[in-house]
Specification:
The chain is an alpha/beta fold. The protein has 15 helices and eleven strands. The chain folds into three domains: about 130 residues, Dna Topoisomerase Vi A Subunit, Chain: A, domain 2, CATH 3.40.1360.10; about 45 residues; about 140 residues. Helix content is about 50%, strand content about 10%.
């Protein structure tokens, strides 16, 4: 392909490059990719877009991968031309690649025509893993009961070409035998984003997972993704903390048994009888105002110890409504809660929290509601831990009568 400069001179667009033909689904050459030979940038160069070639809608090797994917019952997606060529040399012909771009919605649609769950096998470096996450996020609005993605993670610093050259097809097949589901890949990515050592970090994890689930267009997978991620988040939040470091040797020679310290009255009250009715009613009012938050927090809400029995029954009504799988809105929750709002049948009142007032900023109110649940759960855990520690110290060093 010749390019004409402003001075009227011409030069070859692909000079000094290995030429790779790009074909459409019928096997017709519609463009070229060029890999530079030696040093230089860019490493890869495509033909410009034309009426025949739209790089965001085309997959390299689509013509040969289509029949191979049907017989192999899988489709493998790699990052570049050379990876496809390397896999083909290893007798893995069901591989395609985007044309030097991030995976697009149109390319996802083409993949799903061949396989309902293509396997993304991107490079093992940070750029490759970021590309995999971008593809996962791009796919979320489009997934459905028969459309998803799977992932394999290559050893650090390796690409598929490296893998098959060093380990052969067996090394590749070992990874492809256990691909990671889309939900697991996004969960692992968000869990590794930052240590969950503070309520703020845990709230951030929750918010990111909710945003991912809300991006899903289909109602059924949207609800299932959200429920699954919230269950995992609850398990990760309740995981035991790391063991305390061993004491220094000099200190270990003189074992000490400090006298038990008094537990604060507020902590003792929470541990013994749960949160007070006023706070519990505020949470219930918040979830009635923002029912979209109920699914994400129904398990946490169910685990809260509420001292007031009528309020606890009201909480149970909310939890049962969330677990029923029905679509919840303010009107449906009002129907459930109104007759049972208080022992006297009165409606729930606004109790001064942002999430109990109708004039609050919705984003702030939802954030405050999530934070309130986190803080109350943490308070219960701390209170119980203090009570347990006090009882252990009493057994170790009983006070004299």
């Amino acid at each position: 392909m010749l390019i004409r400069t402003d001075e009227g001179e011409t030069y070859d667009r692909f000079r000094g490059r290995l030429m790779i033909p790009i074909r459409d689904a019928r096997g017709r050459v519609i463009a070229f990719g060029g890999r530079i030979l030696g040093a230089g940038e860019p490493k890869y160069l495509n033909s410009p877009d034309t009426p025949l070639f739209d790089k965001g809608r085309t997959l390299y090797n689509i013509d040969r991968a289509s029949p191979s994917s049907r017989s192999a019952k899988r489709l493998i997606v790699v990052e570049g031309y050379m990876d496809v060529i390397a896999l083909d040399r290893a007798a893995v012909a069901e591989a395609v690649a985007p044309n030097g771009t991030a995976v697009t919605e149109a390319q996802l649609e083409r993949m799903w025509r061949l396989d309902p769950a293509p396997i993304l096998c991107f490079d093992g470096d940070s750029a490759g893993q970021k590309a995999a996450i971008r593809a996962a996020l791009r796919a979320l609005p489009l997934i459905a009961p028969e459309r998803t993605l799977r992932f394999v993670e290559l050893p650090p610093g390796q690409d598929p070409d490296d893998l098959v050259r060093t380990g052969g097809r067996d090394a590749l097949e070992a990874l492809l035998a256990e691909p990671e589901p889309l939900a697991d890949r996004l969960w692992r990515h968000e869990l590794a984003a930052q240590p969950l050592t503070t309520p703020e970090a845990r709230a951030g994890l929750r918010q990111r997972l909710i945003e991912h689930s809300q991006a899903i267009g289909e109602p059924a997978p949207r609800r299932l993704y959200r429920d699954e991620w919230m269950r995992r988040r609850g398990r990760s939040r309740s995981a035991p903390p790391p063991a305390a470091p061993a004491p220094r040797m000099a200190q270990a020679r003189r074992p000490l048994h400090p006298p038990p310290q008094p537990v604060g009255q507020e902590a003792r009250s929470i541990a013994a009888s749960g949160i007070d009715a006023r706070t519990a009613r505020a949470l219930i009012q918040g979830f009635a105002n923002y029912p979209e938050e109920l699914t994400a927090h129904c398990e946490q809400l169910a685990s809260l110890a509420i001292a007031d029995k009528p309020t606890a029954r009201l909480r149970d009504e909310l939890v049962n409504a969330a677990f029923s799988g029905a679509m919840l809105d303010q009107e449906s929750l009002a129907t459930i809660l109104q007759p049972k709002a208080t022992p006297g049948g009165k409606a729930l009142r606004s109790l001064g929290f942002s999430f109990t007032r109708r004039d609050s900023d919705p984003n702030r109110a939802r954030s405050d509601l999530a934070a309130a649940v986190e803080i109350l759960l943490a308070s219960e855990e701390v209170a119980r831990a203090l009570m347990d520690a006090t009882e252990r110290l009493k057994r170790i060093s009983p006070t004299k009568p």
